[in-house]
Design goal:
There is one protein chain. This protein is 62% helix and 9% strand. The protein is an alpha/beta fold and 694 residues long. Helix 3 crosses helix 12 and helix 14 packs antiparallel against helix 15.
């Protein structure tokens, strides 16, 4: 290793094939993602943490012949391991042992961020603090004695303004330098109550006798404190490695300490930490009283029960208006280009009819669905990224939390659910802004009940035939059924599948920021790329499978004409499966043609109408006459309800699978089919009871 003195007084390290493993951590809304994107220059790969659906982002950069591998840990307020995000973050630090942990701290709210700082220092991590949003702190009249705080904590503190790329290069340099420096263990110690300190020393003595630090690589003091806080994860690790006696001893010490203090030990430890934070703040942070003004005024407006709700409706309406007014025409152009130019080339430009239809009617149809989604998805994600970066989403969470908490959700879930009324795919992808794995899965389970725009043409068609004059009330009733089923499902799943206690949800109001266009584009592209990679192949595969089921049957290959010939498609596997299911839907008044149309609706809900036109052997212009002869108001309404509640389109299913895994996706599909069948059946039974009653 060679050190070169530079004119700017930085030490440049020239290392051959040196890799520095870095973890970046911080509270939500501190600019962690922005800083990660700046460091990695937007070049990162996205996956999931093992065994869970929480997103994992990793990036690599080369700086002065040093490779930095940086992992973006979930946004957390503490490392108590009460939630899946906290557990992931803590396990990574303990098990992967990164060379450096960078904590991104909001300079405008240092006290709130330092709870995590103290926990990281107690874990004996090699910590660097990126003191972010320094420009906002200055505007708010906050002065931080960085040098004094750095000396007190014995850890480097680098002031940054991530959104403007200020201090990022210095942070990278200091990270490389600090990774090579030897640092004394437990540089800063949190000062606890004397009785707690005695208890810590007693447990440390037991731990040192058996060499726990040497065998497990865990700091004695940190383990002792965690045992006093009754940390189940640490208890599990010790028991699995044969240290049950220490766990029992710690439990006894904890019991005795509780009797002495006459209060809960964990509460006392938390209180002591905050006392340490208060002392540090009083020494190193100066605040001006002049900053009640604009931020507080805007907060009072946005979180007001009536005004805030009105603003939220306007914001969401504007989102849909922009996304669909700008994105939908682009989607139509893409669809038109594929059908007008590419489809004829594939369908008629290749002599082999089977192969040409496979490409045109199978593969291209799946690819077309993917590509037509992209423009709308992009604009929706751009808007969600804007609302997140500007600081509006936490205000939404605060506004709705009192209501959504009754259903096992936080206020942040409101936005993805409302996006679901436009399109379920971006709604499911946008659940990544939610705080926990449980909440994401719960939201994803109920989003398909939000009636997306693709179902609306079906409602309009049937209400115009059977409910003339009352179309709007009937359609609104369908939407209401969807919302009611979604809320009932949330309650059911919260009490069964997710019956564990939901960790407390802290809503922090971050400062209002001017969003970075680069960051917004980067996040939007991450969502789009994830959809393309994870869901794209599934969508194409299902499209080809449905094509195969339509042109083949028990008698073998039926020919490509089966796609447009009602007589031939009646002999296909698709029709065969539909006829097998016919007895189950007899009380609905549906035959195999309706069932087959619903099965084809799995491609996309709007396909149901065109499928009916083909299977009923009428053009779409004569479909209304045919349906009026076949359906009655009750069977038509039950069909609309079934269309609302049954399995969503394959793009939605593929997205669910990519976000939460095959097992959970399958469970959601089965559950939704059951709910759709039971609800539609209940309507038929109820109507029969009412009819016979009168």
């Amino acid at each position: 290793m060679r050190f070169h003195k530079k004119r700017n007084n930085y030490v440049e390290i020239d290392l051959e094939k040196k890799i520095v493993k870095v973890a970046i951590i911080g509270n939500p809304n501190v600019g962690k993602s922005v800083l990660f994107n700046k460091i990695t220059r937007g070049k990162a790969w996205v996956g999931n943490w093992p065994g869970v659906t929480v997103e994992k982002k990793v990036g690599k950069i080369k700086f002065n012949n040093v490779v930095i591998e940086i992992t973006d840990l979930p946004g957390v307020y503490s490392l108590t391991a009460n939630s899946i995000d906290e557990l992931i973050a803590r396990r990574f630090i303990l098990e992967e042992k990164p060379d450096i942990v960078i904590q991104v701290v909001n300079a405008t709210n240092l006290e709130r961020n330092m709870y995590l700082t103290l926990q990281l220092l107690e874990m004996d991590t090699k910590l660097i603090i990126a003191l972010n949003m320094m420009d906002l702190a200055e505007k708010e009249g906050i002065k931080i004695n960085v040098e004094g705080l750095e000396k007190e904590l014995h850890t480097p503190i680098i002031p940054t303004i991530a959104i403007k790329n200020v201090g990022v290069r210095e942070l990278i340099r200091r990270t490389i330098e600090y990774s090579e420096e030897s640092t004394p263990s437990m540089k800063f110690k949190v000062r606890y109550d004397p009785e707690i300190e005695k208890a810590i020393e007693m447990i440390i003595e037991e731990l040192s006798k058996l060499g726990v630090e040497r065998k497990l690589g865990l700091n004695y003091r940190w383990v002792a404190v965690r045992l006093l806080e009754d940390d189940h994860e640490v208890t599990r690790i010790l028991k699995e490695n044969g240290f049950e006696n220490i766990v029992e001893k710690a439990l006894e010490v904890r019991r005795e300490l509780k009797e002495k203090l006459k209060t809960d030990v964990e509460f006392m430890i938390i209180e002591n930490r905050y006392q340490n934070i208060l002392e540090l703040s009083q020494k190193y942070v100066e605040r001006s009283i002049r900053r009640e003004k604009l931020t507080n005024l805007i907060d009072r407006i946005l979180t007001h029960p009536l005004i805030g709700f009105t603003v939220f409706i306007v914001v969401v309406y504007s989102m849909f208006l922009l996304s669909f007014n700008v994105g939908a025409p682009i989607s139509e152009l893409v669809s038109e280009a594929l059908s007008t130019y590419l489809y004829p080339v594939l369908r008629y430009g290749i002599q082999n009819e089977f192969f040409s239809s496979l490409l045109a009617d199978g593969v291209l149809k799946g690819v077309g669905i993917i590509l037509t989604f992209i423009p709308i998805l992009f604009f929706l994600f751009l808007e969600i990224s804007f609302l997140e970066d500007v600081g509006y989403l936490p205000r939404v969470a605060f506004l709705f939390d009192r209501y959504t908490s009754k259903f096992g959700l936080s206020g942040r879930a409101v936005l993805p659910l409302l996006v679901g009324f436009g399109c379920n795919v971006p709604a499911i992808l946008s659940t990544r802004v939610l705080g926990s794995d449980k909440e994401r899965k719960l939201s994803i389970a109920i989003i398909p009940f939000m009636s997306c725009g693709a179902r609306l043409p079906i409602y309009i068609l049937f209400t115009s035939i059977f409910f003339k004059g009352i179309e709007i009330p009937i359609i609104l009733s369908i939407y209401l059924v969807g919302v009611t089923v979604a809320l009932m499902t949330a309650i059911l799943f919260s009490k069964t599948i997710f019956h564990e206690t939901q960790p407390s949800y802290i809503i922090e109001m971050p400062p209002y920021l001017l969003p970075s266009i680069q960051n917004m584009l980067s996040k939007s592209w991450t969502y789009i790329k994830s959809f393309l990679i994870r869901a794209g192949s599934i969508i194409v595969g299902i499209s080809v499978l449905i094509w195969v089921l339509s042109i083949t049957g028990p008698e073998g290959y039926l020919g490509i004409e089966s796609l447009t010939d009602p007589e031939k498609i009646s002999n296909s596997w698709l029709a065969t499966f539909s006829k097998t299911l016919e007895p189950l839907f007899k009380h609905f008044g549906w035959d195999w043609r309706v069932i087959a149309s619903l099965m084809l609706g799995f491609i996309a809900k709007e396909v149901i109408i065109s499928s009916m036109a083909v299977i009923y052997s009428v053009g779409e212009e004569n479909l209304m006459i045919e349906l009026s002869n076949y359906f009655n108001p009750l069977s038509a309404y039950s069909l609309m309800i079934f269309t609302l509640l049954y399995t969503p389109c394959m793009a939605t299913v593929a997205t669910i699978r990519s976000e939460v895994g095959l097992k959970y996706a399958f469970m959601i599909i089965v559950y939704e089919l059951m709910i759709a069948y039971l609800t539609a059946s209940s309507l038929i039974v109820l109507a029969g009871v009412i009819h016979h009653g009168f």
